[in-house]
Design goal:
This protein is α/β, with parallel strands linked by helices. It has a domain of 199 residues: 3-Layer(aba) Sandwich (Rossmann fold), CATH 3.40.50. Helices cover 25% and strands 18% of the residues. The strands form two sheets. The chain has an eight-stranded mixed β-sheet with strand order 3-6-5-4-7-8-10-9, sandwiched between helices. α1 packs across α4. It catalyses: guanosine(46) in tRNA + S-adenosyl-L-methionine = N(7)-methylguanosine(46) in tRNA + S-adenosyl-L-homocysteine. It comes from Corynebacterium uterequi. Keywords: Methyltransferase, S-adenosyl-L-methionine, Transferase, tRNA processing.
């Protein structure tokens, strides 16, 4: 079991900016109003510096987080940028970070990732997992998809440190990590049509109505994900939160370039079995929550 506490009811763990947004119910039919992603803002973070002070390794820069504005004309574009405020590492984790983060991790920046160079091999499929938490399922799945490059994106540094420890201990070679908002990582660091898969397992449900706008599954992010997937690429989402599942149910056809495949989808070209029950999944099961899984495939147009 992980020692990572869920942020479900503690949104104060996050700093959220630019949240002026009028809540209204999702209207999937309005998909015809899709526009383009707005140009990225220019508050660029500097490129990664390998000579950086070890004490600041994996630290997000202070100040307003990078934020992409979605202007898709739909009701749920996802507004606001998110950054994480809490979490310290144990001395052991600090030592591990100092030794291995420069090779296996990076922070969100306006810098497109050269995936082949980072993984030291070329032409392999690549999957981005957003919100990997402590990486329990990330580390369990990766050895079964050794051919695939897995990029785990997480805001919570101790979660990344836990995954880093497992990678090192178990000599897992196909995982790299990015610390930052997964939406910004996709928008700024991942080229268009370059991914074979995107995974979002048990995203924060933001249960209060006034926080629904912070949910990651919205029309804007779905459009962004579609743009980063290759034709035929797969988006896999799982939630144990009934209200969030209802929300996702209303959005399954909102993005025209994501064809909804439902669940199960036996022909799915990517691994869908998480292999382990993550802490968040386990908490949901303890409460007799139903786990809902969603699969979409990027259209081939
Ligand atoms: C409920 S936990 C689930 C963690 C993990 N997937 C699991 O099943 O155990 C959600 C995770 O997503 C992370 N998270 C939330 N919003 C994020 C974002 N925009 N980008 C990256 N990670 C995010 C949180 O820090 C948290 O670790």
């Amino acid at each position: 079991m992980s020692d990572f506490s869920p942020p479900f009811d503690t949104p104060s763990m996050y700093q959220y900016v630019r949240t002026g947004y009028n809540h209204s119910p999702p209207i999937a039919e309005s998909a015809g109003g899709l526009g383009e992603l707005a140009p990225m803002n220019t508050n660029a973070h500097p490129p990664q510096d390998p000579t950086v002070d070890p004490g600041t390794l994996g630290e997000l820069p202070s100040g307003r987080p990078l934020q992409t504005t979605f202007t898709d004309g739909l009701d749920y574009p996802r507004i606001g940028a998110v950054s994480f405020r809490r979490g310290t590492l144990t001395p052991n984790q600090e030592a591990l970070f100092t030794e291995h983060w420069p090779r296996l991790g990076r922070i969100l920046a306006d810098e497109v990732i050269d995936v082949d160079a980072w993984f030291g091999r070329s032409g392999h499929p690549t999957i981005v997992e957003i919100g990997s938490g402590t990486g329990t399922s990330t580390a369990a799945m990766a050895p079964l998809e050794a051919d695939t490059n897995v990029i785990a994106v997480e805001l919570y540094k101790p979660g990344l440190a836990k995954l880093l420890g497992q990678i090192v201990r178990e000599d897992i070679t196909n995982i790299r990590m990015v610390r930052g908002d997964g939406i910004e990582v996709l928008a700024r660091m991942i080229p268009e049509a370059s991914l074979d898969g995107v995974r979002i397992f048990f995203p924060d449900p933001w249960p209060k109505a006034r926080h629904h706008k912070r949910r990651i599954i919205q029309s804007g992010p779905l459009r962004l994900i579609a743009s980063r997937l290759k034709p035929g690429g797969v988006l896999h989402v799982a939630t144990d939160h009934a209200d969030y599942a209802e929300w996702i149910d209303e959005l399954v056809t909102v993005e025209p370039r994501l064809e909804y495949r439902g669940w199960p989808w036996p022909e799915c070209p990517q691994l869908t079995d998480r292999q382990v029950i993550t802490k968040f999944e386990g908490k949901g099961l303890d409460k007799e929550h139903t786990i809902r899984e969603y699969l979409w495939q990027r259209t081939t147009d």
